[in-house]
Amino acid sequence: MAQEKIESLSLQEAIKVLEESVESKPNVEILPLLEAQNRYLATDQICQKSMPSFNSAAMDGFAFSHKAQGELKIKESIFAGDKKEILLKEDECVKIMTGAKVPEGADSLVPFEEIEGGFSNKDSIFVKEQGKIWNNIRKEGEEITKGEILLKAGEELDENALMLLATQGISHVSVYEKLKIGVFASGDELKEPWEVSSSHQIHNSNATMIVSTLKSFGMNASYGGVLKDDKEKISKVLQSPYDVIITSGGASKGEADFMREILQRSATLLIPSIKIRPGKPIMVAKMQNKFIIALPGNPLAGAVLLRFLIVPFLKNLSGARAHFLQSIPIKIYEEFTLKNRMDAMLGIINNEGFKLTQKGKYGSSQTLPLHLSNALAIFGEDFLCGEANKVIQVLPFKLIFGDKKCNFIN
């Protein structure tokens, strides 16, 4: 019986299909600040309190009017947290400490060490030259003003975003619920790492790779075990209450690979395969309200596609504002040549530039090249020669995301 011809999409077409398939945002929940790390904001956060909320001293020194000159009487000492309300005359100054509120009438500050003749045991200082207005003073609202957007919906709550919210006295935030992701391996030949394998069997490493990769990008996934090559059992698993089901293996058209047959019958096949090496046998389908992602069984191919194609899609599906991959320009360190096709090549980046892992000589079934790499680069069909010192776009394994599209294909 002749095999059915599979119409492959280009990488650009596949990315577009995934973007357009995200039609809604996840449900929303309210969490305490310290439980919301790496979640995505469901609503804009408005600045409730200007930063700083008052004119404050940027360093220890003396504050006075920038118009003042000559001898200035030290009227008072002010420390951070003091509530003193002081009105300075033009011939007066205050001794003030970092973070303290600058009194009315003062708009310039000179550090202790820059005072003419010093100031020890004196009740006045001498200002020889006219000070600059707002010199060494943090003006009220110079960082952000009350009423402005502090954080936008979809922003990830990393440690810096959480700190910003804390400055506003915000203790709880509305965030999108995490995706419920189920991970399954596929193949009768698989044994788990804790099981004994015969010479004709292999240990299941792909599930570990998928779950740990997702975890490194702030996503949780449940491992459901190995799917045996049985249509009924596979169909039943695909009905599980997950938002996303990721399988490893079963995307090709082998005699015992039933995943494609099941998806073609009971789901909308969004991506039948992609014209790229490695990783052509990948499928993405939508079944009711869940997505099914069948990664290639070859570990290197699956890991590469998961990282640069599926992780950005999952971030978008999670409600992330910044879900577009951002590449970085790096020069080629060692010259290489490629064939006339779309290639995703593993590489190593350091202070010397980018070079192919093992000079590009590895197979999609291998795992060691992934460990030896820290980046990958995507090359189009017309990119045939990587000349030394030529600048290319590279995707580090620690992926960078932005809210605008970036063309990372060389």
Characterization of this structure:
The protein is built from 7 helices and 28 strands. It is of the alpha+beta class and 410 residues long. Helix 3 (206-216) packs parallel to helix 6. The chain is elongated, with a radius of gyration of 30 Å. The protein starts with 10 loop residues before the first helix and ends in an 8-residue tail after the last strand. The model has no long low-confidence stretch (mean pLDDT 90).
What structural class is derived from the secondary structure elements?
alpha+beta
Say how many strands there are.
Answer: 28
Report the average pLDDT across residues. Answer: 90
- Cα distance spanning the termini: 40 Å
| Most strands sheet | 6 strands, mixed
The geometry reads as elongated
How large is the radius of gyration? 30 Å
Percent of residues in helices comes to 10-25%
Strand content is 25-35%
**pLDDT < 50 runs, ≥5 residues:** none
Number of helices: 7
Q: Give the spatial strand order of the biggest sheet.
A: 15-12-16-19-18-17
Quick structural gist:
This protein is α+β, with helices and mostly antiparallel strands.
Any key phrases for this structure?
410 residues; alpha+beta; six-stranded mixed beta sheet; five-stranded mixed beta sheet; 7 helices
Topology:
Blueprint (H helix, E strand, L loop, with lengths): L10 H11 L6 E5 L12 E2 L9 E2 L3 E4 L5 E9 L13 E5 L11 E4 L12 E4 L9 E2 L10 E3 L7 H9 L4 E5 L4 E6 L3 E2 L10 E2 L2 H11 L4 E7 L3 H7 L6 E5 L10 H8 L1 E4 L11 E5 L2 E6 L3 H19 L6 E3 L1 E4 L4 E2 L5 E8 L2 E4 L11 H5 L2 E5 L5 E2 L4 E6 L3 E3 L8
Parallel strand pairs: 5-6, 12-15, 12-16, 13-14, 16-19
Antiparallel strand pairs: 1-11, 2-10, 3-9, 4-6, 4-7, 5-8, 17-18, 18-19, 20-28, 21-27, 22-26, 23-24, 23-25, 25-27
